[in-house]
Amino acid sequence: MKIRRSNERGYADHGWLRSYHTFSFANYMDPNHMGFRALRVINEDRVAPGHGFGAHPHRDMEIISYVLDGEMEHKDNMGNGEVMRPGDVQRMSAGTGVLHSEFNHSQENGLHFLQIWIETAQRGIQPSYEQKHFPTAERQGQWRLVLSPDGRDGSVSVNQDVNLYASLLGAGDQVTAPPSRYAWLHVVKGAVEVNGEALATGDAAAFTPDEHVELTSHDASEVLLFDLA
């Protein structure tokens, strides 16, 4: 178990955007944190009301968006236009190339979301898009599969051998992580104890194959678990 503390992450303040980078991104470069297995980016972004990312290109990357608070408006040149809210998971496969924009849909309230990049298993695929909502009840006190290679159990599909689980925990809840190959645990919010180590909002931990992962929540918490080949 290797811990990545929240205050060790890269940080950028653009006024309208405040962003923490778990792995090297843009002007933040740390050769010791270039990603984990196929997981390349976890950016925790806060976007001011009425602001956002104008149309920009991507290619050969699986881009996952996970809204924590507020509303995010997505548009792309494939013709998709959606407003994401907490509980929504969106996957955009950039493939041979796609243009998209992401804006705070509100003129009054802030937007808080995670943008996650996963290296694709195959380059040059046809761009595609998928978004699904996962109700609170399906994540409360348990692991809910929200992303998988085959879209099983109603999850969003992804072009890589990665399973992503989400869980909402109340104070005192205990859960054991599903069996995994390599695992990356990200504390979205709250305070948990993982294998005896205290982790708080923004902290993360990496695990080797088949390492037992036991969580106890000390506060209302939200956690993501990546199972990676």
TrEMBL record:
Q: Kindly give the InterPro entries that the UniProt entry links to this protein.
A: Pirin, Pirin_N_dom, Quercetinase_C, RmlC-like_jellyroll, RmlC_Cupin_sf
Q: Which residues form a coiled coil?
A: none
Where does the record place the Pirin N-terminal domain? 8-118
Q: Which Pfam families match?
A: Pirin (PF02678), Pirin_C_2 (PF17954)
Q: Which Gene3D superfamilies match?
A: Jelly Rolls
Q: Which residues form the Quercetin 2,3-dioxygenase C-terminal cupin domain?
A: 145-228
Q: Where is the signal peptide?
A: none
Give the UniProt family note: Belongs to the pirin family.
Q: What is this protein called?
A: Pirin family protein
Organism for this UniProt entry? Vreelandella lionensis
